[in-house]
Design brief:
mainly alpha, Transferase(Phosphotransferase), domain 1, Mitogen-activated protein kinase 12, ATP binding, MAPK, transferase
């Protein structure tokens, strides 16, 4: 059926999918096959949407499983709050949003920014002070005023383990599934 509202781009609304009964279960699988490749295969060009792109990708570091965890955390936040974790239309504006939410980028990355815009030096200034209004806890509190203190701490614990600048220090998928905060949050919603 044709869309009745004026849109920026022509499109059609499609009917909901009717999956086969045997495909319906208790597990959910998220996947992005736009960048699917065999583990260990390097890729040279930027392919991630800016809002889900790990910051090391715009600093000439090849994607890793840690990059996937960063993207997962962005999706997790979006599903939980209903809005993007990092705002912007370009990699440059998203990187600015990341810095405002998490603090300065690693100083060792200075001079390696390469996707357009400028790799502004202040993004790497370890003495830069964050705006308290941009803090993850403050944003979640504003976006989800219905959330209690315990749930908020579980969500923050999960996000803080995955939104680490150095990809090798991020929680792995296996660790996340076994993490107490993740299990606790899933138990809250498994009713």
């Amino acid at each position: 059926m044709k869309l009745w509202t004026e849109q920026w781009k022509d499109g059609e609304r499609v009917m909901p999918m009717k999956p086969k009964e045997e495909l319906i279960g208790d597990s959910i699988v998220l996947g992005d096959f736009g960048l699917a490749h065999k583990a260990g295969t390097s890729t040279q060009k930027m392919q991630s949407p800016a809002t889900y792109c790990a910051p090391e990708r715009v600093h000439n570091i090849n994607p890793s499983y840690g990059s996937d965890i960063w993207s997962y955390m962005c999706i997790f936040f979006e599903l939980y709050t209903g809005t993007y974790l990092f705002q912007g239309w370009s990699h440059a504006s998203v990187v600015s949003s990341i810095v405002h939410a998490l603090g300065p980028l690693p100083e060792s990355w200075k001079g390696t920014y390469y996707v357009g815009g400028s790799g502004e030096d202040k993004r790497y200034d370890q003495n830069w002070q964050m705006d308290p209004e941009s803090d993850l806890k403050e944003r979640i509190t504003q976006l989800r005023p219905d959330v209690g203190a315990r749930e908020l701490e579980l969500v923050l614990s999960i996000l803080r383990r995955g939104l680490v600048y150095q990809h090798e220090n991020r929680i792995t998928a296996a660790e996340l599934l076994d993490h107490g905060s993740f299990k606790g949050l899933m138990c809250m919603y498994a009713q």
